[in-house]
Amino acid sequence: MAGLGARVLAAGFAGRHTRSSKIEGSRLATAGPYAHVRNPIYLGSVILGIGMVFLIGDRRLLLPCTLTFLALYFGMIPAEEEFLSQKFQDQYAVYCRNVPRLIPRITGWPEAGKTPFDWGAVGGEWQLSLILAGIWSLIRVRVACHR
């Protein structure tokens, strides 16, 4: 739930483009969770993935989960950072110097923007929550049937 909550909060402050398959952005997101960490949606995904491993109850899944996140994020984050540094230049450079990539700062960056929360941007996160609940339920039923 913590990982999904982090993703919902981050999506609401980032905007609707986060569900797109291409890297884009009309503004630099620095409000809300983006004042604490540059990639709160990815951090939420990591928390969510690890949480699912523990909910399923098979810690052997932790290694493939970790390797999947490493492969995805070490490819995606640099590509997104390159796009943002080209589009927002000095503004993004200042943001990067003050806000960490994946480990959140305790206090929010004081220079963060004041972007309003966009409830329309979180629709995909509700779909994700239903998919994850379905996966977890199927695994629990299968485990119960094999006992």
Per-chain topology:
Layout: H1 2-14, H2 40-56, H3 62-98, H4 123-145
Explain this structure to me?
The protein is mainly alpha-helical and 147 residues long. The protein has one domain. 61% of the residues lie in helices and 0% in strands. It has four helices and no strands. Helix 1 packs antiparallel against helix 2, helix 1 packs antiparallel against helix 4 and helix 2 runs antiparallel to helix 3. The longest helix has 37 residues. 20% of the residues are buried.
Strand content: under 5%
- Biggest beta-sheet profile: none
Q: Name the structural class.
A: mainly alpha
Order of helices and strands: HHHH
Please state the CA-atom Rg, rounded to the nearest Å: 17 Å
Enumerate how many helices there are, as a single number. Answer: 4
Whole-Å distance between the termini? 28 Å
The coarse overall form would be elongated
User: Could you give the count of β-strands?
Assistant: 0
Proportion in helices: 55-70%
Quick rundown:
This protein is mainly α. It has helices spanning 2-14, 40-56, 62-98, 123-145.
Keywords:
147 residues; mainly alpha; 61% helix; elongated
